[in-house]
Amino acid sequence: MPAPTVRPFHRADRDQLTDLVNAHVAAVVPGVSVSVNTVLSELERQPGEFITDPWVSERVTLVAEQRRFVVAAAHLLRYRADDEVGEGYRDSGEIDWFVCHPPASFWPDAEEAADLLMSACLAQLARWNVRVRYADVALPAPAVYGLPRNWPHIRAAYERAGFRHVGDTEVILIARVADLPEPEAGAGLTVERILGECGTRFTAYADGRALGFIEVDTSLARPERHTRAAGLADIGNLHIDPGHHGEGLEHRLLGQAADWLRLCGVDRLLAYEAATDRQALDVLAKAGFRELTRTDRGWEHRPGLPQMPGR
Q1: Is the CB of residue 89 less than 8 Å from the CB of residue 79?
Q2: Are 228 and 32 in contact (CB under 8 A)?
Q3: What are the beta bridge partners of residue 270?
Q4: Which stretches are annotated as coiled coil (predicted)?
Q5: Topology alike, domains 5-161 and 174-294
Q6: pLDDT, tens digit, 9 for 90 and up, residues 214-250
Q7: Residues of the chain with pLDDT under 70
Q8: Which of 52, 108, 145, 162 is 20 to 30 Å from 269 at the Cα level?
Q9: Per-residue exposure over 152-187, b if at least 16 CB sit within 10 Å of its own CB, e if not
């Protein structure tokens, strides 16, 4: 078998690259895949990242090929060094995402291909002469960001190359909308539905005072971008006034949101919480959510530094 080689992405690679991306997405979120158009658009710009995307000065996509088959791929970003760029991103380079086939009997050189591609990524970052080197695996699909625990082969490739997890860990949860609480009428409690920052907002009021709110985003499945995400929504915000924790407001707001989602034809709801926030995780678990995966955010190239215990 010929050895794998690394080269720039060609448009003719689009179908194989999309298949590779979707294989990784499917291991994280059930029933979700992205279209070829979504992947190609993501290589040119990231409209969802309206803050950081304008800071990008260069984009490079590389693939590892063996027997004319794309076995690994990576997308790299270079951020400008001027004052308009946020301080943490200024003059930085990032592996925005990195995907590769896991080692298997029918693909014995998968690890070699991953390491070869990673070496090419580091060489590109060195040519850019950036101040700091970051890494993520932010694929263009709902809830696929950071480095999910479902991809041990990607984690191994990052760690072999000297990337270390220096950020936080988030828990991604999912619930069947049918399992969420039913809407309840509380004495003296009213709920108002308006447009919020991250979707449709339901705010609970008592005596004219806002006690808390929940926002749900039902626009995850735009037809021109996601081919199999119908019926999926996520919680953009869930906030309860500190003086009203323990009064069951979270469940009442989830019940109001669930009733709305049923009318929208949504059958699954995603939520995201910090792994250290046990109170929020317990509330969601009691409401019908279960853990989908954990994802480690914030990777930085620090060769020679040992991996932190418990990562």
Answers
A1: yes
A2: yes
A3: 174, 234
A4: none
A5: yes
A6: 999 998 765 555 556 668 999 999 999 887 776 788 9
A7: 1, 104-107, 185-186, 221-230, 246, 305-311
A8: 52
A9: ebbbebbeebebbbeeebbbbbbbebeebbebeeee
How many residues comprise the chain?
311
DSSP string for the chain: -PPPEEEE--GGGHHHHHHHHHHHHHTTSTT--B-HHHHHHHHH--TT-TTTGGGEEEEEEEEEEETTEEEEEEEEEEE--STTS-TTTTTEEEEEEEEEPPPBTTBTTHHHHHHHHHHHHHHHHHHHT-SEEEE----SSTT--SEETT-HHHHHHHHHTTEEE-S-EEEEEEEEGGGSPPP-PPTTEEEEEEEETTEEEEEEEETTEEEEEEEEE--TT-TTTBSS-TTEEEEEEEEE-GGGTTSSHHHHHHHHHHHHHHHTT--EEEEEEETT-HHHHHHHHHHT-EEEEEEE--EEE-TTPPPPTT-
Q: How far apart are CA 16 and CA 65, in angstroms?
A: 11
What digits encode the pLDDT tens for the residues 10-20?
999 999 999 99
Note the CATH architecture for domain 5-161.
3-Layer(aba) Sandwich (3.40)
CA 151 to chain centre: 13
Domain boundaries, the chain: 5-161, 174-294
Rg (CA), the chain: 21
Question: Contact, 128 vs 26, CB < 8 A?
Answer: no
**In the chain, what percentage of residues exceed pLDDT 70?**
91
174-294 to CATH, choices 1.10.287.3510, 3.80.10.10, 3.40.630.30, 3.30.70.1450: 3.40.630.30
Q: Is the dihedral of CA 139, 142, 146, 150 positive or negative?
A: negative
Q: Which of 226, 230, 228, 227 is nearest to 218 (CA)?
A: 230
